[in-house]
Write a structure and sequence with these properties.
The protein contains 2 helices and 8 strands. By secondary structure, it is mainly beta. The protein is elongated, with a radius of gyration of 17 Å.
């Protein structure tokens, strides 16, 4: 199952890399980091954690983009709960819709992916890889004239484990490209 997950991530990366920009099309690459906020049952045992990731977006005309990204997040136990930690490694392919043509650009996104969730408790660890989905919003701000942009975004994410693992990453980063 882990090999399948790696294959899915590799295909998503190749889709973005193989895309050739045309006059109205462009590719932007980005890197970001931030906080991972557990939700639902996941929040009952884990406290706020950290997340980071990289990705690329192939922008088509009319503000529509195809995005592929890979992220890693980790959380740990709340005080007074059995000692444990949770680590999430995942990839997601999303459709992005961007508003506006100049200045700050708000955007919406939604997509499907594949995540591996590893949980350790009391010296025992378990891992499972499952389908994930996410939807969210963000804004990107220009930083000078070179095409570099600062972005801030969040995306409700759910991994189809049993029970489902839901979280909200709050990410700030920088993107480059046309």
């Amino acid at each position: 199952m882990k090999r399948f997950g790696l294959a899915v991530l590799a295909v998503m990366a190749l889709v973005v890399v193989a895309a050739r920009p045309a006059s109205a099309q462009s590719v932007r690459w980005g890197v970001g980091a931030g906080l991972l906020m557990p939700m639902g049952d996941y929040a009952d045992g884990d406290k706020l954690g950290f997340t980071g990731g990289v990705g690329g977006t192939y922008w088509l005309p009319a503000g529509v983009g195809i995005r592929a990204d890979i992220s890693y997040g980790t959380t740990s136990e709340k005080s007074g709960v059995t000692a444990h930690s949770t680590k999430i490694l995942g990839g997601m392919a999303s459709v992005v819709y961007q508003f506006g043509v100049a200045g700050p650009k708000p955007y919406l996104m939604g997509g499907l992916g594949f995540s591996n969730v590893k949980q350790e408790a009391g010296g025992v660890s378990g891992s499972e890889s499952k389908i994930a989905f996410g939807f969210g919003a963000g804004v990107s701000l220009p930083m000078g004239t070179g095409g570099t942009r600062l972005f801030a975004e969040t995306r409700y994410t759910s991994v189809s484990t049993d029970p489902s693992l839901t979280y909200l990453p709050i990410v700030v980063g920088i993107s480059f490209g046309r």
